[in-house]
Design a protein that fits this description.
Blueprint lengths: L1 H26 L17 H9 L3 H12 L2 E6 L2 E6 L2 H9 L4 E2 L8 E2 L2 E2 L11 H14 L5 H24 L3 E4 H15 L5 H5 L1 H14 L7 H8 L2 H28 L10 H11 L4 H31 L1 H13 L12 H13 L5 E6 L3 E3 L2 E3 L3 E6 H4 L42 H18 E5 L7 E4 L4 E4 L3 E6 L7
Parallel strand pairs: 2-10
Antiparallel strand pairs: 1-2, 3-7, 4-5, 6-14, 7-10, 8-9, 11-14, 12-13
């Protein structure tokens, strides 16, 4: 009996101490405005949960920006978090990688302990090792190398049209745009040096696996009950098994590539795997880190399928935009890399979809030392969050921000402030594959509209662009009817 009483007393004392500690920590942020929390212990958890259930998670932050300004605080339980869409603050956050670092608990690094992308990958890594790798890989993904990648991407797209899409369509069929693009972009790493039998012959299987990963990974951030249920589910174990299979496959790719590289004086400009191996070697890392990077590449390739899926969702409500884009594509056939530059309106459409439905909806950084950020002095050991979704819907930057208006990019992006439009981020952590993404998206749109008439198909439940806490997800299509214009040829 005394033992039980003692344990209860110790628990109460600990709870009281932690509550006082949390309260004292919150006092350091009193000078920063923000919405009143639902309660001291729960912070804004209930407000955000209700919004998430209505697919309006980030709309809450957009409302808070209009009330409390472009920099404010909110609470995750008892922990203050600084949210900002102030362009000057965003510039500091994205360029200062020493004082603003990646948070440690990124869910795509591991799945219930099973390594996925690890801690040193070109996307989620940090520190000196990441900086060395990033500097070397910048050259592979540089704009001047895109013509080399383009030459290998064109025959790939033709082969996929001939062998994957044409048999499905025949004389006409309805396809899920997101699923189709997932298949296409899952094959793309193969022409950039990440060759494997599954990616070459069955890219749809790679895409299926990646989407399973992306469905299950967020469970690790769910509430206690859902997290426990997911941890005990067969789906979790099946997904871990798929991750293990993918890593085994990637490990073999690295082993085979190392053999091929023996005696090579210079790595080819279109061989991403050779570049990744050399970058990891230069950073003092091993083959498991190369496998991390391969897994990262496959995960981010799906970003392009989600982006074009979102674009086609908007085209359902903007048929005139679709008509103008198709007209431009058919009047300007792609003959070489430079001919992509003729697709100016198509590029505007892609950029507008990146504004309204960026794949990355929200980002986080950890502030390591006290610092003046904008007009507020922020204590150390504090999480920062920002949101492209919110930034891209602010009327002071974008007139009629909720309307899909490609013409706003008629002069390209140079006339747009980098820190009011950054779907690919900015600074030293800008997306490595941004040029690959633009080339691949323009090319696939061109080849589709050159070979098919596409018409949106009404469904009982319209397709939805889902506002998750971090990345865009698509639900329910979009579905389009494909009618061939003439025989699809890979020539």
């Amino acid at each position: 009996m005394f033992l039980i009483v003692g344990i209860v007393v110790i628990g109460l004392v600990y709870y009281f101490q932690e509550t006082v500690r949390a309260w004292l920590h919150c006092q350091k942020f009193r000078h920063i405005p923000g919405p009143p929390p639902d309660s001291f212990l729960k912070g804004h958890q209930m407000t955000l949960k209700r919004a998430k259930n209505k697919n309006a998670f980030l709309e809450v932050f957009l409302t808070w920006v209009t009330v409390y300004g472009t920099t404010f605080q909110f609470r995750i339980k008892t922990r203050p978090v600084i949210f900002t869409v102030d362009p000057e603050a965003l510039k500091l956050i994205t360029q200062d990688v020493v004082n603003f670092t990646k948070v440690d608990h990124l869910p795509n690094r591991a799945l219930y302990g099973q390594r996925i992308t690890g801690t040193y990958s070109i996307l989620t890594g940090g520190g000196q090792e990441w900086a060395i790798k990033r500097k070397m890989m910048n050259s592979f993904f540089a704009k001047q190398n895109m013509s080399t990648i383009f030459k290998k991407t064109v025959p790939l797209m033709g082969r996929l049209l001939e062998t994957k899409i044409k048999p499905s369509v025949g004389t006409g069929a309805v396809l899920d745009i997101h699923e189709m693009y997932t298949m296409i972009f899952s094959a793309l790493p193969g022409v950039m040096g990440l060759e494997c039998p599954m990616g070459n012959d069955h890219p749809e299987e790679i895409g299926r696996r990646i989407n399973i990963f992306l469905d299950v990974i967020p469970f690790q951030l769910a509430g206690a009950a859902k997290k426990l249920s997911a941890a005990m589910s067969q789906q979790k174990q099946d997904t871990i098994d798929l991750v293990i299979e993918m890593r085994v496959m990637s490990r073999k790719m690295v082993t085979d590539k190392r053999k091929d590289m023996v005696g090579q004086d210079k790595k080819p400009n279109d061989d991403m795997l050779a570049w990744l191996i050399e970058a990891n070697d230069a950073a003092g890392l091993g083959d498991e880190e190369v496998v991390d990077d391969i897994m990262t590449v496959y995960l981010v390739m799906d970003n392009m399928s989600k982006q074009l899926g979102s674009l086609f969702v908007y085209l359902i409500d903007y048929p005139e935009v679709l008509r103008k884009m198709v007209k431009e594509v058919r009047e300007n056939p792609i003959t070489d890399y430079r001919s992509l530059d003729k697709l100016k309106y198509t590029e505007c459409v892609i950029l507008e979809s990146l504004r309204l439905a960026p794949v990355l909806l929200r980002g986080t950084r950890w502030l390591n030392k006290p610092m003046q950020v904008g007009k507020y002095f922020i204590p150390a050991d504090c999480q920062f969050q920002y949101s492209q979704y919110v930034l891209h819907r602010m009327e002071e930057h974008w007139p009629n921000p909720r309307e899909f208006i490609p013409e706003r990019f008629a002069n390209g992006t140079p006339g747009v402030d980098t820190f009011t439009f950054f779907p690919f981020l900015a600074g030293s952590r800008a997306c490595l594959g941004r040029y690959v993404a633009m080339v691949a998206m323009k090319l696939t749109l061109s080849m589709l509209f050159t070979n098919y008439n596409l018409t949106p198909v009404p469904t009982s439940t319209p397709p939805v662009i889902v506002q998750t806490m971090a990345v865009t997800r698509l639900k329910g299509g979009p579905f389009y009817d494909f009618k061939p214009l003439y025989r699809v040829s890979s020539s």
